[in-house]
Amino acid sequence: MSNVTNLTVLIDSEPAPSGWIKIDKDLNAGAGGAYLYFAYEKGAGDPITNIIFLLNKDESAPPSYHRIDVDLNKGAGGAYIYAAFTREPALGSPIEDLDVILGDNSGIQPQAPWRRIDVDLNKGAGGKYIYLVYRTA
Predict the structure, then answer these.
(1) With bands split at pLDDT 50, 70 and 90, how would you rate the model's confidence at 32?
(2) Which of 58, 63, 67, 72 is nearest to 85 (CA)?
(3) In whole numbers, what is the pLDDT of the chain averaged over residues?
(4) 17-28 pLDDT tens trace
(5) Where is each MABP domain found (predicted)?
(6) Half-sphere exposure of 36 (CA within 13 A, CB side)
(7) Structural contact between residues 12 and 107, judged by C-beta atoms closer than 8 angstroms
């Protein structure tokens, strides 16, 4: 079973890198702005164990985290939101899969065994409530 080993954000019609999986759900759905999509790579390398969101454009990622330098509300107004991830085993279990859920209220939850990261990726921009969800091995 392979785990998620890398994560990026695609802008507009930018293709996913070869071998990567694009989550075809716009992170600015209903809010205007750039079309943004998560894409991830699965493999036998060191797995991603935790993903967080930084809510300030000048906020640095914590030690061992890699910040993806794309504002998830790019062009839509709203809060500055940046994803960051780590492969540090002590900070979580290996992530096996990722998806994005969209809804009309903040109560939207994924089906078990999926877990939601509790940051609305459209925060302050209007539009749909959008959350990154994951499941661990």
Answers:
(1) confident
(2) 67
(3) 95
(4) 999 999 999 999
(5) 1-137
(6) 27
(7) no
Looking at the chain, which runs of residues are DSSP E strands? 3-11, 21-22, 36-43, 50-54, 65-67, 82-86, 95-103, 115-116, 129-136
Coil, helix or strand at residue 114: coil
CA dihedral 88, 89, 90, 93 (to 10 degrees): 120
Pairwise CA distance, residues 47 & 6, whole Å: 8
Token pair, residue 73, equals 């509300």
CA dist 19 and 133 (Å) reads 21
DSSP classification of residue 91: G
Contact between 115 and 21 under an 8 Å Cβ cutoff? The reply is: no
SS3 of residue 59 by DSSP: coil
**Domain boundaries in the chain?**
3-136
Distances (CA, A) of 24 to 57, 101, 110, 111, 116: 25, 11, 17, 19, 18
Both tokens of 78, joined, read: 């709203």
